[in-house]
Specification:
homodimer, six-stranded parallel sheet, eleven-stranded mixed sheet, Rossmann fold, alpha/beta, 14 helices, 3 domains, Alpha-Beta Plaits, 37% helix, Dihydrodipicolinate Reductase, domain 2
Chain lengths: 429, 429
């Protein structure tokens, strides 16, 4: 049986998951590909750290990355170190040495993906990155191949497990943000510094990668407007529930007549929407296209074996392409001008929560400000907080974000409004 | 630009959807594949029926199928007629003429898939069938390639839109089976003769196709145990809701230590399970594997454009393979002995509803029969129907199906039990 030799760069969570699957499913993988896939070298910076691990015969650790690039028997390099500079250097070196590359590095791809893909084609090899977004959920190849007959009009994703864990737990337990974040940190679902997750940056990087493929454009991290979940309040979640909505941090890429809008922000969605049922640390991507109508892809967005599963499927694909002499066929897919549509112009329904005086005529004053801004109201709930203050939760009809900004200014100038608590968009279609 | 010529056999729902997508997404598809895909001939039995349709230049109807097989310029044949005998004859003729084939014909594949796939490899061409199961949801290639690094341990699917529409509506409206079936027929979600759907046959065919790929075995329709939804009662749905369960018609293929079990039957699942949120005519497949943990694929299970989307993605793949001289690489994937596990031996929790005398000591008598059969009870609800009768709804712990059959016999011999209403398995993991 033909053998394809693989080197791993990095042996952290994803590297170990990849290795574990390649070893334990070895026979199955050989059956399915007709090829023996063998990890022969694993690059780690500090070999001593791994001295307790016994590798199978024919596999060894090295701290000399050049040993891997110089090894002509290695045809596939798997970059699972993360980081930008050194990882990019290694990937470029590998591609230029006509070795195919598998990477799980979303930060790098969100910054330099199109450039690296061009480089792979130029060198006649494959660069694959199924594991860079949505962990174990097969989505890159799904968008690129299986949905290739569709004009994709919208992708909406729960792209970050940490924030979905936090929001799901706030929803199910009625608990506050800080409390649930602390629990998530204790359970290992959130990092000590949770910024990249809770501020939506991680989701934005994934949205950039997914949108590039779905919409055939060169999209980068900085093209995405981002807002995190740190201001979400248990009060809003409870009001949302009354209106039939569930809160999610969504990455939304939408093709409009005026361009492509790219946003990550907390959003209410109907509790009947399939994305609303995505709980805990799970991820999902909901896709609309002019053939499929709609579809959703759901699963583990992170973790050693799920992410390893995506890496392994990429390695298998490359192995098959080596066998059939078919590398370098992943043509660049950026046919269209970027043509972005500013997020401020997107129309949406909104949820607005304000604290007001508890007195006669307050609702009329608030309603007249909404009317002045041509915002129509779909629903409103009033809750008395104490003798002097009430909370108003308002659901508007669809309107541009600028109308909402204007009415918030108007509310702030209204004497009966004590505080504008929250403004949350509602995804209605 | 290279051109690949395609012939359609059949121009019904799926054929028209395929054609519509190829025409309206023509430029996008050409960009994505680098190939101009052109339908040049469409075989229909009765040309006159289509005389009102204006085809684009270079495309024409024919009622002579030989004209297509003899046309050397046609490299891809798309079989979207359905049926067994003539469709099979055409597919075999096409493969033997070294033309690649795309088919949406699940009945034929569930009966003869492995044979036809072998024939395609023998002739060095592709036979693709993404559209044969789950309409627009990309699942064949997902199982075959994207999840290829996994040992798949279980697939559980909502594989039939008609029955899911009926059960969802019964659940949401509290309506009876006959009433909802009539509504489904009126709306076009159920056929005049709904047997293949409501008796689970359609779902069983799809489970056979999916299991072949997931478990690398030659599985046929007759290997699947089938039970339909016609006996499901609104009462059971209501009791299930109380216990936190939702009713679904599930296709369940499960790898056990003693073999592969293949079953289609109505089942309760936790209302928190992702499959529980699949409503209306939507389909979904939930997959467990030793890498991904779990994942779910959700979307339109039927319809002209969704199913057409799957056909088109297969045509695109074949076109790319023609371009790269890479046809015939879909190797047969039946590595394992069939080794089926009889469905009667599967362990499961069960829901049992019985009508009993409304008198003291009845519960004790029922409970002792359960205890005699070593069945432990997880929950029980009693509802008085009138002065003389009560309903007992019982949820058991996991036990073999044979225990349940025994206890049902015992109930039937118990004087206080007036009727055994329903027995429904509960999927607990």
């Amino acid at each position: 049986m033909e053998q394809v030799n693989v080197a791993l760069l990095g042996f952290g969570t994803v590297g170990q998951g990849t290795f574990e699957l390649l070893v334990k499913n070895n026979e199955l993988i050989a059956n399915r590909t007709g090829i023996a896939i063998k990890v022969t070298k694993i690059f780690v910076r500090n070999i001593d750290k791994y001295s307790h691990i016994t590798l199978p015969e024919g596999t060894h650790f090295t701290n000399d990355v050049a040993e891997i690039f110089d090894d002509a028997s290695i045809q596939v390099i798997v970059e699972v170190m993360g980081g930008l500079t050194f990882a990019r250097e290694c990937i470029e070196k590998a591609l230029n040495a006509k070795k195919s590359v598998v990477t799980a590095n979303k930060d790098l791809l969100a910054e330099a993906g199109p450039y690296l893909l061009d480089l792979a084609v130029k060198n006649g090899v494959d660069l694959r990155y199924e594991a860079s977004v949505l962990g174990g959920i097969p989505i890159i190849r799904t968008l690129y191949e299986s949905l290739g007959g569709n004009k994709i009009t919208e992708v909406v994703g729960i792209l970050n497990g940490t924030t979905n864990f936090i929001l799901s737990n706030m929803t199910e337990k009625g608990a506050g943000y800080a409390e649930v974040l602390a629990e998530a940190q204790k359970l290992g679902y959130a990092e000590a510094d949770p910024t990249a997750d809770v501020e939506g940056l991680d989701a934005a990087r994934k949205l950039a990668i997914l949108s590039s493929i779905a919409f055939n454009r060169r999209i980068f991290f900085e093209d995405v407007s981002v807002e995190g979940i740190t201001k979400i309040d248990a009060t809003d979640i409870a009001f949302g529930k009354e209106f039939g909505y569930t809160i999610k941090l969504l990455g939304i890429a939408k093709e409009t007549k005026k361009g492509l809008s790219l946003n990550v922000h907390p959003s209410f969605i109907s509790s009947n929407h399939p994305l609303a049922s995505v709980r805990g640390s799970y991820n999902a991507l909901y896709v609309k296209g002019n053939g499929i109508d709609d579809a959703m892809f759901y699963g583990r967005g992170a973790g050693s074996l799920p992410t390893g599963s995506s890496v392994v499927s990429d390695i298998m694909e490359i192995a098959k392409n080596i066998h059939t002499n078919n590398l370098g066929q992943l043509k660049p897919f950026y046919y269209f001008e970027k043509n972005l549509y500013a997020s401020g112009k997107i129309e949406s329904s909104y949820y607005i929560r304000i604290l007001v005086d508890n007195s006669t005529g307050v609702l009329a004053k608030v309603a007249s400000k909404l009317a002045e801004q041509r915002i129509s109201v779909q629903a409103v709930t009033q809750r008395n907080e104490n003798e002097t203050t009430s909370t108003l939760a308002i659901v508007t009809s669809s309107c541009p974000r600028s109308y909402i900004s204007n009415v918030i200014n108007a509310f702030n100038n209204l004497r009966v409004v004590r505080e504008v608590g929250s403004v949350i968009p509602i995804m209605t279609d």
